[in-house]
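Page 42, continued from yesterday. The earlier attempt failed because a stray header line got pasted into the input along with the sequence. Redoing it now with the clean sequence only.
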Amino acid sequence: MKIRTVIIIIIGLLFLLGCGGKKEDEKMDESKLVYKPVEDTREEAAPPEKTEYGYNFSIKAPKANYVSIVGDFNNWLDNRTPMVKNKYGVWSITIPLKRGIYSYKFNIDNTWVIDANNPNLARDSLDDRRSIIEVTEDSEGYEEPIYRGVTNARSPVMEKTNIIFSYKDKFAETVSIAGTFNNWEKDQYFLKKNKHGVWETAIHISKGEYYYKFNVDGVWKHDPNNPVYVDDKQGDYKSVLVIDNIIKDRADSPTVINKDIIRFSFYNKDLPSNYTISVIGDFNDWKTNKDVMADNDFNKTWFTTVELKKGEYYYKFYLAGTEFFDPQNTLKKVTPEGITANYLKVILPAGKRNVKFSYRNRKAKDVFLVGDFNNWNPQIDKLQKDQTGLWYIVKKMYPGTYSYQYIVDEKWITDPSNGDSVTDQNGGFSSFLRVQ
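This time it went through. Structure tokens are written below.
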């Protein structure tokens, strides 16, 4: 009897333990489980591949410390899209993309390279090669990119080969930018707004000088963060952008910024976008490799800008050994050499010139400009200071010669960026400026 009782007790205990274990399993908190992403196990890189969630890009660089992808889809910002490295040294990333044609490169430890596994290439206006990918339909989960980190707008700056434009307006619904770099087409480049109300975009623009404005809910406005501007003859101003491959944040000698920038453009829907078309004329000795137009945006529109002085000019377009007329310019004349070409007349605006003065001093509290043009009044022309410590002011001045100085925290000094100086009536020196 006792043995039977013991056996029953043991069986009961085993049953209870079994049920208890089962119930404990059923109550397991799945939120505490760790799910690891599947590692990319490919041993070699491949051309861009369409996947369920976007396009996969890859490059093999086993010795690299950092690799990212840069392109039209992330405004060519090299810190926006870092890639992941597997044990074979292959870096990869999958990006949801909207339908369209994109150019891109890889950034390997701050060196930009094309995709060696992608045979589709194009050249930009600087004759630099880029890899090309065509996306035929929107990827699943594609969302328009929004910039979140910028809290204030700033003057245009160069990042790699792009110019970053920004404009702050929390209540605006749409903001675009246009200028002589795109023939003032306001519906081509739209800015994106972040949570701070800052609108931003990046545009690849070739070396040159340009006028531009923002279009804010249908109203044209100049860039309030850019101190360089000219009168647009319509009651407002046009902002001025000068690109010399590197936008400098250092002070410079006073610069007259009134110049005529002529934009040449050509449209042909049947011409491949990787072709280049030259503007040839008497202003560049009819050279085919100097003023080159490119279809940077793959919209079948080729353009470039040329700085021209006042005068009369003759020109043509050139493609693959063939010269042809500009279809947008119906005016043609015969050159002194007997060549029939398009005719262009440049007339510089009369009157005052816009002259930019700048001075760098991060520690200064106040900087004023004094000179012949303001009767040496130390309280009229106060310079503004940007976030880099650069003080600046733009003055409208008639052609002529002027002497001037800066007053830095009540101390009078000559312009350290201007090597030209003259003696003043007190036996000292003042900086010298000639406005033409």
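Notes: The chain has four domains: 49-135, 157-247, 260-346, 353-435.
Reminder to self: strip header lines before submitting.
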